[in-house]
C-alpha cells in the first residue's frame, strides 16, 4: 500500500506533478451513466445475501483463522418479503425469475458421512418447528423433527439412508411445505416440487 | 444505524445486520462492477464474491476505516481478478470505433432505467487499469489520495491512467459528446 | 420359482400376516423388486425386509382412497412394476394434504410412467432408476432420451444422470440440449459429482433470468470436457474457491 505522494520505480516522480485537466463533457457522460443505470432489484440483492449465507454456512471454522465466527440466526424481522412457500414458485418449465419471490430464500444442504445423511436448512425467518419428510420416513411429519443448531441457528437432522435416490421436503410449523430451491428437484405436476438426494453407494 | 454498528452486530450474530449492509451498498457496488466488467452476470458474480469475502473478513475490518472504502477495496480487487481470469481480449475493431463515434449521445437527464450502452462498450475497449482509474475518479468521485490507498498505485501513475484513459475514451465516443 | 420356495414363501407370508401389528399390512402384498427381478419372482428376504419405504399406511387415507390405492398397487405389482415408488407417492400426497382424487390421479400417472421407464431403461434397472426415469418421463423427457442415458452407465448407475437431467429440464433447459450435456458428462466414469455440479450451476443461474441456465450449462460442459474439472473432484460449485480477502 503506497502512501500519499510516493511512487514506484517506473512511475513518474511527483517533483513535477502534472495536473489532469478534466474533460468536462466526458465526466458528465460518465456520471450520467452511473445515474441512469437501472438499480438491481430486491430479488437480486436478496440472492446475494442468500449466496453469502449459503457459502458461509459451509465455510469451515478454520478458514476464519480461529477468530470468533459471527453466529447467524434469522429473526422474524429479517427479509422484507418472507418466502411463504417455495413450493409454489420454485420451478416452472421455462420460466424463472419472473416468479421468484423478492425475499431471501431458504438454504439447504445435504452431507453424507458413513451411512448417515445430514440435512441442514437455514430459514429466512424464525420457525417453531421444522420437520424433515421424505420417502425414507413415509413422509410423516412426526417422524423426523429437525433440531436447531446452537452455533448458527440452522435446522438439522441426520438420517441413515441407503444408497440411491431419496425424495424429501421440509414442513415448517406444521403447515408450510418447503423445498430447497437449489437442490435437485422432482416436480410432480399433480403435487408440486420436492427435493431429491442421491446417496453414494457401493 | 451506522455502518460501524452494523459491523459490530454482524460479528455478534445479529439477525439482519449483514443483510442490511448488503442492501445499503449493493447498488453502489453494482454501478462500479457493471461499468468495469460490462456484463451483468459477471458483475453479479463479482458482487457475490466481494460480499462473501467481506463477510468472512468482517472480524478484520477496522472501524476507523470507512466501511464503504474497505468494501470497495475488496470489490476492485475482485473486479481485477474477474478480468484477469476472463482473459480479457482487447477488441480493437475499427468498425466498432467508428460506430461508437457516430452513436447519438443520450440526452442529459437520461430517464432512469435506460443504460448508456455505448459508454459501457467504449469503456470495455480501454485498458482495464485506465478504466478503473476513470471510474474511481469521475464516477466514484474519489481523490487521487484515496485512489492510491485503494489500488496501491502511486498518484502519478493514477493521474497518467486517468489522462490517457480520458483521451482514449474521447477518441472512441467524442463525436457523440459535444 | 421352485416348489419348495413357493411353499416356504406362502408359509412365511401367513406367519407374517399373523404377527404384523397392522392388519392392513397383511391384506397388502408389498412387492419390492430389487436388482434384476422383474416378474413375479420375489425373494423371501424382500418380503421379510420391513422397508419403511414400502409400507402402506392406509390409515392416512380415507377408506375409498385407500382401497383404490391398494388396487393400483396390486395392478402394478401384477405387471412386474415396483410398488414402493407408488406407495411413496401416495404417502407424499397424504403429507401434502391434497385430496384423495388428486393422489389417485398422481399414483396412476406415476404407474404408467414407471411402465414406460421400465421399457426405456430395461429390465436390469434398479427401482431407483425406474422411479427417477418415471419422473423424467412425466417431465416431458422422451423415452429415447432415457434409452440413451441408460447406454452411458451400467445397471444401477444411472440414477444421478436421470435426476440431473430432469432437474435442469424443469429449470428451462431444452430437452435435447440437456440430454447432450448430461450424456457428455455421464460417459466419463465416476462422474456423478460432475453431474451434480452441472445441476448446481444451472439451478443457481436459472434464478438470474431467462437464458442464464442454458448459458451456465454450456459453460460448465465446456469446462468439464476440456479437463478443467476432473471427474474425481467434487464439482459442487461453479464458483472460484473462496479464500479470505487480502488484508
3D architecture notes:
The complex is a heterotrimer of chains A (202), B (178) and C (247). Chain A contains 2 helices and 9 strands. Chain A has a domain at 44-50 and 71-199: Immunoglobulin-like, CATH 2.60.40. In chain A, a hairpin with a 3-residue loop joins strand 6 and strand 7 (176-178). In chain A, 43% of the residues are buried. Residues 1-8 and 60-101 of chain A have low confidence and may be disordered. In chain A, the strands form 2 sheets. In chain A, strands 3, 6, 7, 8 and 9 form a 5-stranded antiparallel sheet that branches. Chain A has helices at residues 24-36, 42-58; strands at residues 107-113, 116-122, 130-134, 147-148, 155-160, 164-172, 176-178, 185-188, 192-199. Helices cover 15% and strands 25% of the residues of chain A. The longest helix of chain B has 21 residues, at 17-37. Chain B is mainly alpha-helical. In chain B, helix 1 packs across helix 2 (17-37) and helix 7 packs across helix 9 (155-173). Chain B is built from 9 helices and no strands. In chain C, 62% of the residues lie in helices and 0% in strands. Chain C contains 12 helices and no strands. Chain C has helices spanning 3-19, 23-27, 44-48, 63-78, 84-96, 100-121, 127-138, 143-152, 159-170, 175-186, 192-206, 212-225. In chain C, helix 9 packs parallel to helix 11 (192-206) and helix 11 (192-206) runs antiparallel to helix 12. Classes of the chains: A alpha+beta (202), B mainly alpha (178), C mainly alpha (247). At the A-B interface, helix 1 and helix 2 of A face helix 1, helix 2, helix 3, helix 7 and helix 8 of B.
Sequence-ordered SSE layout with sheet pairings:
The complex is a heterotrimer of chains A (202), B (178) and C (247).
Chain A: H1 24-36, H2 42-58, E1 107-113, E2 116-122, E3 130-134, E4 147-148, E5 155-160, E6 164-172, E7 176-178, E8 185-188, E9 192-199
Antiparallel strand pairs in A: 1-2, 2-5, 3-6, 4-5, 6-7, 6-9, 8-9
Chain B: H1 3-12, H2 17-37, H3 40-56, H4 67-86, H5 94-102, H6 117-124, H7 128-139, H8 144-151, H9 155-173
Helix pairs in contact in B: 1-2, 2-3, 2-4, 3-4, 7-9
Chain C: H1 3-19, H2 23-27, H3 44-48, H4 63-78, H5 84-96, H6 100-121, H7 127-138, H8 143-152, H9 159-170, H10 175-186, H11 192-206, H12 212-225
Helix pairs in contact in C: 4-6, 5-6, 6-7, 6-8, 7-9, 8-10, 9-10, 9-11, 10-12, 11-12
Amino acid at each position: 500500500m503506497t502512501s500519499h505522494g510516493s511512487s514506484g520505480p517506473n512511475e513518474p516522480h511527483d517533483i513535477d506533478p502534472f495536473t489532469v485537466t478534466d474533460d468536462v463533457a466526458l465526466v458528465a457522460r460518465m456520471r450520467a451513466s452511473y445515474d441512469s443505470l437501472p438499480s438491481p432489484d430486491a430479488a437480486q440483492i436478496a440472492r446475494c445475501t442468500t449466496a453469502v449465507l449459503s457459502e458461509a454456512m459451509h465455510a469451515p471454522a478454520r478458514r476464519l483463522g480461529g477468530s470468533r465466527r459471527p453466529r447467524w440466526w434469522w429473526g422474524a424481522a429479517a427479509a422484507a418479503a418472507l418466502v411463504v412457500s417455495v413450493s409454489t414458485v420454485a420451478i416452472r418449465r421455462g420460466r424463472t425469475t419472473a416468479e421468484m419471490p423478492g425475499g431471501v430464500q431458504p438454504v439447504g444442504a445435504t452431507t453424507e458421512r458413513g451411512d448417515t445423511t445430514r440435512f441442514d436448512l437455514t430459514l429466512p425467518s424464525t420457525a417453531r418447528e421444522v420437520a424433515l419428510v421424505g420417502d425414507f420416513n413415509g413422509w410423516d411429519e412426526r417422524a423426523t423433527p429437525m433440531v436447531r443448531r446452537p452455533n448458527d441457528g440452522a435446522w438439522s437432522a441426520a438420517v441413515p439412508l441407503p444408497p440411491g435416490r431419496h425424495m424429501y421436503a421440509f414442513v415448517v410449523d406444521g403447515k408450510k411445505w418447503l423445498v430447497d430451491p437449489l437442490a435437485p428437484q422432482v416436480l410432480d405436476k399433480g403435487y408440486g416440487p420436492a427435493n431429491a438426494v442421491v446417496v453414494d453407494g457401493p | 444505524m451506522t455502518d460501524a454498528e452494523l459491523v459490530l452486530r454482524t460479528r455478534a450474530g445479529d439477525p439482519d445486520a449483514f443483510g442490511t449492509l448488503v442492501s445499503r451498498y449493493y447498488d453502489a457496488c453494482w454501478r462500479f462492477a457493471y461499468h468495469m466488467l460490462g456484463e451483468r452476470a459477471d458483475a453479479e458474480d463479482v458482487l457475490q464474491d466481494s460480499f462473501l469475502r467481506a463477510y468472512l473478513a468482517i472480524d478484520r475490518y477496522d472501524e476507523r476505516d470507512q466501511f464503504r472504502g474497505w468494501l470497495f477495496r475488496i470489490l476492485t480487487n475482485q473486479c481485477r481478478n474477474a478480468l484477469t481470469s476472463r482473459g480479457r481480449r482487447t477488441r480493437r475493431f475499427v468498425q466498432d470505433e467508428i460506430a461508437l463515434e457516430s452513436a447519438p449521445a443520450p440526452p442529459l437527464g437520461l430517464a432512469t432505467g435506460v443504460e448508456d450502452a455505448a459508454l459501457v462498450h467504449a469503456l470495455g475497449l480501454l485498458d482495464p487499469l485506465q478504466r478503473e482509474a476513470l471510474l474511481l475518479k469521475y464516477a466514484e468521485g474519489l481523490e487521487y489520495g484515496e485512489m492510491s490507498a485503494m489500488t496501491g498505485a502511486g498518484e502519478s501513475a493514477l493521474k497518467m491512467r486517468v489522462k490517457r484513459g480520458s483521451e482514449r475514451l474521447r477518441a472512441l465516443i467524442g463525436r457523440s459528446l459535444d | 420359482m421352485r416348489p419348495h420356495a413357493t411353499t416356504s414363501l406362502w408359509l412365511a407370508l401367513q406367519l407374517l400376516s399373523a404377527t404384523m401389528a397392522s392388519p392392513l399390512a397383511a391384506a397388502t402384498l408389498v412387492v419390492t423388486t430389487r436388482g434384476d427381478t422383474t416378474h413375479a419372482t420375489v425373494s423371501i428376504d424382500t418380503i421379510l425386509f420391513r422397508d419403511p419405504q414400502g409400507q402402506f399406511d392406509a390409515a392416512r387415507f380415507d377408506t375409498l382412497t385407500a382401497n383404490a390405492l391398494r388396487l393400483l398397487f396390486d395392478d402394478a405389482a401384477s405387471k412386474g412394476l415396483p410398488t414402493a415408488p407408488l406407495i411413496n407417492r401416495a404417502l407424499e400426497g397424504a403429507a401434502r394434504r391434497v385430496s384423495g382424487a388428486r393422489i389417485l390421479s398422481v399414483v396412476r400417472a406415476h404407474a404408467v410412467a414407471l411402465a414406460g421407464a421400465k421399457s426405456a431403461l430395461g429390465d436390469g434397472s434398479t427401482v431407483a432408476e425406474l422411479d427417477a426415469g418415471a419422473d423424467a418421463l412425466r417431465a416431458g423427457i422422451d423415452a429415447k432420451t432415457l434409452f440413451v442415458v441408460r447406454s452411458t452407465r451400467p445397471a444401477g448407475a444411472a440414477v444421478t444422470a436421470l435426476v440431473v437431467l430432469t432437474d435442469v429440464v424443469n429449470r428451462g433447459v431444452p430437452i435435447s440440449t440437456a440430454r447432450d450435456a448430461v450424456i457428455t458428462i455421464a460417459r466419463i466414469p465416476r462422474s456423478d459429482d460432475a453431474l451434480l455440479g452441472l445441476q448446481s450451476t444451472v439451478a443457481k443461474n436459472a434464478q438470474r433470468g431467462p437464458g442464464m441456465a442454458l448459458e451456465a450449462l454450456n459453460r460448465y460442459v465446456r469446462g468439464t470436457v476440456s479437463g478443467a474439472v476432473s471427474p474425481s473432484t467434487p464439482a459442487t460449485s461453479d464458483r472460484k474457491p473462496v479464500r479470505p480477502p487480502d488484508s
